[in-house]
From TrEMBL:
Belongs to the class-V pyridoxal-phosphate-dependent aminotransferase family. SerC subfamily. Keywords: Amino-acid biosynthesis, Aminotransferase, Cytoplasm, Pyridoxal phosphate, Serine biosynthesis, Transferase. GO terms for biological process: glycine biosynthetic process, by transamination of glyoxylate; L-serine biosynthetic process. Pathway: Amino-acid biosynthesis; L-serine biosynthesis; L-serine from 3-phospho-D-glycerate: step 2/3. Its cofactor is pyridoxal 5'-phosphate. It catalyses: O-phospho-L-serine + 2-oxoglutarate = 3-phosphooxypyruvate + L-glutamate. InterPro entries: Pser_aminoTfrase, Pser_aminoTfrase_methanosarc, PyrdxlP-dep_Trfase, PyrdxlP-dep_Trfase_major, PyrdxlP-dep_Trfase_small. It is an enzyme of class 2 (transferase). This is phosphoserine transaminase. The lineage of its organism: Bacteria, Pseudomonadati, Pseudomonadota, Alphaproteobacteria, Rhodobacterales. Gene3D superfamilies: Aspartate Aminotransferase, domain 1 (3.90.1150.10), Type I PLP-dependent aspartate aminotransferase-like (Major domain) (3.40.640.10).
């Protein structure tokens, strides 16, 4: 017997981990000032791009001597650009604890053919940073979007180091305090925590990363969309809004709107508080629910954005089928879209808790998870 459904539905059922929910105040007419049909190199286009860079710096607290560029191909483009442009000068360590980090390992080993040291951890765990040599270049993902495991503390990375750190921060930026003095090349996409549009990446470079770019030329060819230097000098324009190729001015307007919204909720502090409140609501639910656990084993590593959950009940016969069916029920009811675990991750649910999600919607979702779980247990025993 399927239980009666909970009384309240989330006002917004969008809990996807990317593209993530738009800011609550979003509507398409908010983009009416977009510089559409104008050159991105005209004064109006350039000033919007520059504005996007400057306000990213302000909200994220990026130091004045770091460079911020808007680059092609979303976070993947930004991170690949960093790897292809910076690596190869010294030994490399690749760290991975879920599928996106593993993807960077594959590229470093199979495409760049680097003889890198690879350290991995299972889904739910994290690597031991004490065993990493930060005099080497180190590549890692701050928040593993597919396992909900994040770097526990800035102290995992030493402030003094000879190597560069290349940090994929796409599901961390605007939700976590990123320690800029420990990060040399940091990337994210607009489609994540601020609920912007995909296809544009942001690359943030420390002075030491810039020094590497200006003193070292990789052995491999670099396609035009990866090239950050010309004649051994950084192409400064890229970091002032003169993008490498044509950006979508509609996406730029959308990002500027998202930055306005970020400021309206108190900037980075307000964004982090919103994500924390969402994740705390889930923690209270998990603590009170015997059949549900976090995938992240150590509470210090638990994400406040991509919260990954696993079912833990001896009545479940096939974990993957069960979790998919629960997610399907929630989607069919229109109470939660896209919350099945990532395709390569262990079976379960993944609920996005970034700042654009309202805590009231997370709270409204939780009884529905219980409803769907019980309905699925009942359906499974009927089928048996
Ligand atoms: C940690 C991480 N890296 C990279 C990506 C790829 O991002 P994009 O599709 O914006 O390039 C994602 C997307 O979810 C991600 O979560």
């Amino acid at each position: 017997m399927v239980e009666t459904t909970p009384a309240t539905r989330p006002a917004n059922p969008r809990f996807s981990s990317g593209p993530c929910a738009k800011p609550p105040t979003f509507s398409l007419d908010k983009l009416a000032d977009a510089a559409l049909g104008r050159s991105h190199r005209a004064a109006i286009g350039k000033s919007k791009l520059k504005n996007a860079i400057e306000r990213t710096r302000e909200i994220l607290g990026v130091p004045a001597d770091y460079k911020i560029g808007i680059v092609p191909a979303s976070d993947t483009g930004a991170y690949e650009m960093a790897m292809w442009s910076l690596l190869g000068e010294r030994p490399v360590e690749m760290l991975a604890w879920e599928s996106f980090g593993s993807g960077w390992v594959t590229d470093a080993m199979k495409q760049l053919k680097l003889d890198a040291k690879v350290t991995t951890a299972e889904y739910g765990q994290i690597v031991d940073f004490a065993n990493v040599n930060f005099d080497h270049d180190v590549c890692f993902t701050w928040n593993g979007t597919t396992s909900g495991v994040r770097v526990p503390s800035k102290d995992s990375i030493p402030a003094e180091r000879a190597g560069l750190t290349l940090c994929d921060a796409t599901s961390a930026a605007f939700a976590m305090d990123l320690p800029w003095d420990r990060l040399d090349a940091t990337t994210f996409s607009w489609q994540k925590v601020l609920g912007g549009e995909a296809a544009h990446g942001v690359l943030i470079l420390s002075p030491r990363a810039v020094a590497r770019l200006e003193s070292y030329t990789p052995a491999w060819p670099l396609p035009k969309i990866f090239r950050l230097t010309k004649g051994g000098k950084l192409i400064d324009g890229i970091f002032e809004g003169a993008t490498i190729n044509t950006p979508s001015m509609l996406c730029v307007e959308d990002y500027l709107f998202a930055l306005d919204w970020a400021e309206s909720v108190g900037g980075l502090k307000g964004l982090i508080a919103r994500a924390d409140a969402n994740a705390d609501a889930i923690t209270a639910f998990v603590d009170a629910t015997p059949w549900l656990d976090f995938l992240a084993e150590d509470p210090a590593t638990r994400s406040n954005t991509s919260v990954c959950l696993k079912f833990n009940d001896s009545r479940i016969t096939d974990g993957a089928t069960f979790a998919k069916a629960v997610a399907k029920r929630l989607e069919t009811e229109g109470v939660a879209y896209d919350i099945g675990a990532y395709r390569d991750a262990p079976p379960g649910l993944r609920v996005w808790c970034g700042a654009t999600v309202e805590t009231a919607d997370i709270e409204a979702l939780l009884p529905w998870i219980t409803w769907a779980f019980e309905a699925e247990i009942a359906a499974q025993s009927q089928a048996a």
